[in-house]
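Sequence only, no structure available. Ideas?
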Amino acid sequence: MVNIYIFSWLSWHFLEVPVFLLGVWKNYILCSANFFSTPLLLSTLFAPWRRYKWNYATSGFNIGMVFETLLSNLISRILGAVVRLALIVIGVFFQLIVLIAGFLIILLWFFLPLICLAGFLISMGLI
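Reply:
I predicted one. Tokens follow.
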């Protein structure tokens, strides 16, 4: 009777839960990738910030207005690139944290029985 419980626990601990943890880890990876949307940020890297864009004057030619519009649009694009690059860096950093944390959690799960046994033996003064 005890053997059934031991094998049931071993199956649960080393087969069922790791599959579940891998699924949770995959969901966290996909969620963080979707949250920061790095491919979209890369494809719109030099787009104007918040779509702020100035139009050139249609009547007459005023060199001052042309340069003002050109400079304003350039600043909007540079600001957009800086903010998007910062978000890309933060997103990649967060993805690395999720990858490392998930790996460590799964690794800890496999060694948890040994850690508990060692803690028990140390607390009993047997080690």
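The chain has three helices and no strands.
Hope that gets you unstuck.
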